[in-house]
Amino acid sequence: MNNHRARVIAFYLPQYHPIPENDEWWGRGFTEWTAVANAKPLFKGHYQPHIPSELGFYDLRISEVREAQAKLAQDAGIEGFCYWHYWFGGSKRLLERPFNEVLKSGKPDFPFCLGWANHPWFHKLWDPKGKDILLIDQKYLGVDDYKKHFYEVLLPAFNDKRYILVDDKPLFVIYSLTHKDEIKTIIETWQALATENGLKGIYFVGAQRKETKDEILKLGFNAVYRIADMLKVHSRQSVLKKVFLLLRVKFFNSPRRYSFKDLTKYLYNKEDYESDTIPIIVPNFDHTPRSGTKGVVITHTSPKLFREQVKTACSLLKNKEKDHQLLFLISWNEWGEGNYLEPDEKYGAEYLRILFDVKCYYERHCPTHTF
After folding, report:
1. Distance between CA 278 and CA 323 in Å, rounded?
2. CATH placement of domain 7-363
3. Quick count: other Cβ atoms within 10 Å of Cβ 354?
4. Helix or strand or coil: residue 248?
5. Residue 294's CB: how many other CB atoms inside 10 A?
6. How is residue 369 annotated by DSSP?
7. In 10 A of CB 183, how many CB atoms?
């Protein structure tokens, strides 16, 4: 029997619907689509704006949209979505409606897990001399609040039959590890509550930045995934490339640019072969809709190069146990960062077809797709 399996989990942004806070901060009716639609090309050959094709400028309050997204993802071989959620402390949540409706309605009938995007929100000025404006802070209010978070958000999701498991434990991602003592306490608290409520525990995954993997695992995490680090790409480039980049930024007011080949080159290392490291795949990235000339752009992206990246990522899974053959797709629908797999006007569903084809080859199992 073939034991090869690529468990692709796609990070999912629950935005794209108006909320009172965004109305107050950015103007009535604001969503990510505002920045996406208004983006402009900033250098020769710069692909902007990125316009969605098949799903259009959707509103995530509409159940048919969420079902259409799940159908596309499922047909591409994606196992499920990792829905980001926001809990700022004291039961303060934002952008919770789409996932609440997924949970309440039972639709789409598509696997999911949760990630906690535990970071403050800023109005970023993208000015090295200026100070970003805090919109809402991320607070850590102690064990009673951590218990409320567990019972109000985590446990109802964990008890859903669609919830994604690893080693029979619900998979849960934590994005920011800045407040390490608090994170350690939260993990200990939630593990105890999970056991008390009949679960076998929680499979915690942490986002790795500057920390070593050992430092993260000591906090109580079971595994890590590495954020695609543009600083690492920059530091490993030749002196000539670095100088050329800085000259463009300084004298031509151009966003920082790195090639997709360079990104992929530094995306993986020997730790990705280990069961407690989850490799990532990144189809594209362009932060300029949000940040303009102060942003970062991954250039020369293409379906062909994405195919090679997915092949490399799948090859890292072959010696892992079946449950641990995980890949994180970053991301399903981060349109404001030019980081998405949903169909757009330039490539249609080509990226989805490639993901399906590579998974099919890797797993030696090729059901019919509908693209």
Report:
1. 12
2. 3.20.20.80
3. 23
4. helix
5. 17
6. P
7. 22
What are the structure tokens assigned to 213, written together? 């993997």
CA distances in angstroms from 207 to 10, 128, 213, 308, listed in the order given: 15, 25, 10, 24
The domains of the chain are located at 7-363
Give the amino acid at 179: H
**For residue 347, which amino acid is it?**
Y
- Decide: helix, strand or coil at residue 121: strand
Give the residue from 360, 274, 361 showing the smallest Cα distance to 316: 274
CA-nearest of 75, 2, 49, 20 to 322 is: 2
| Amino acid at position 319, single letter | N
Cis bond before residue 259 (omega within 30° of 0)? no
Residues of the chain where predicted confidence (pLDDT) is lower than 50: 1
* Stated length of the chain: 371
138 Cβ contact partners less than 8 Å away, ≥ 6 residues apart? 88, 89, 118, 119, 120, 176
Neighbours of 54 (CB within 10 A): 15
Q: Which residue's structure tokens are 């995980």? A: 326
Residue 237 per-residue DSSP state = S
| Cβ atoms of 205 and 221 closer than 8 Å | yes
> Quick check: 277 and 328 in contact, CB under 8 A?
no
The confidence score (pLDDT) of residue 1 equals 39
Closest CA to 78 of 341, 364, 276, 323: 341
Q: Other C-beta atoms within 10 Å of 243: how many?
A: 11
Please give the DSSP secondary-structure letter assigned to residue 89. Answer: S
Query: Can you give the pTM of this predicted structure?
Result: 0.94
C-beta of residue 246 within 8 angstroms of C-beta of residue 302: no
Q: What end-to-end distance do the CA atoms of the chain give, in Å?
A: 28
Single-letter amino acid code for the residue at 368: T
Residue 163 half-sphere exposure toward CB, CA atoms < 13 A: 23
What lies within 8 Å, CB to CB, of 265 at 6+ separation is none
Phi then psi for residue 91, to 5 deg, are 65, 10
CA distance 287 to 139: 27
User: pLDDT tens digit string along 62-107?
Assistant: 999 999 999 999 999 999 999 999 999 999 999 999 999 999 999 9
**Residue the block writes with tokens 């070593």:** 212
In whole angstroms, how far apart are CA 165 and each of 6, 61, 183, 277, 294?
14, 27, 21, 16, 39
- Choose among 157, 246, 150: nearest CA to 194: 150
